[in-house]
Design goal:
With 187 residues, the chain is mainly alpha-helical. The chain folds into two domains: 104 residues, no CATH class; 66 residues, Probable gtpase engc, domain 3 (Ribonucleotide Reductase Protein R1, domain 1). It contains seven helices and three strands, in the order ααβαββαααα. It has a three-stranded mixed sheet, with helices on one face.
């Protein structure tokens, strides 16, 4: 949301990021609840099932839902002038039926990301561009870290998989090595 508020430099950065995620197999839509840009395509995508809007406070999740479901009037607030962050107006997740079918879940702003229910050996299944290459790896249980014959690392080296995605993956993989601290934290 808020594509209308992007500067030329922001647009350039967004397009570079869009390429990374499109190449990985994700849909990437740039929309503006304010101007209506991209809203028709977003609404068509949302009519296909159950979707969750998540992101930091102030990115416009509730504003998007108000645009998509007229008359809903979910509370929204402007981004704070003093610290340039969103104000928490949504305090719990709520599912809304959509006019053209499907459901949309509005969630409170997120502050962090944790790998609570994922397993180390299957983290790569959540990176579509990695999962597609798993059959090409020498070992069927390759986690794409230091194993010889890893097709994912070869694809990163060849520029076929974004290095930024691979670095994010390795960072997440490292979180599993926190051992007892992580286990105690999420019990």
């Amino acid at each position: 949301n808020k594509v209308d508020a992007l500067t030329d430099e922001d647009h350039t950065q967004a397009e570079a990021l869009a390429k990374v995620y499109r190449d990985a197999g994700y849909a990437w839509l740039q929309v503006s609840a304010h101007t209506g840009e991209g809203m028709e395509q977003l609404e068509a995508e949302l009519a296909k099932g159950i979707h969750v809007l998540s992101g930091h406070s102030g990115v416009g999740k509730s504003t998007l839902i108000n645009r998509i479901i007229p008359g809903l009037h979910i509370k929204t607030a402007e981004v704070s002038d003093s610290h340039h962050k969103g104000r928490h107006t949504t305090t719990f997740a709520e599912m809304h039926p959509l006019p053209e079918g499907g459901f949309l879940v509005d969630t409170p702003g997120i502050k962090g990301f944790g790998l609570v229910t994922l397993e180390r050996d299957t983290l790569n299944h959540h990176f579509p561009e990695f999962f597609r290459r798993l059959p090409e790896c020498k070992f069927h249980n390759c986690v794409h870290h230091k194993e010889p014959g890893c097709a994912v690392r070869d694809a990163v080296a060849a520029g076929e998989i974004a290095e930024s995605r691979y670095k994010n993956y390795l960072e997440m993989l490292g979180e599993f090595d926190e051992g007892p601290y992580r286990d105690a934290l999420y019990r």
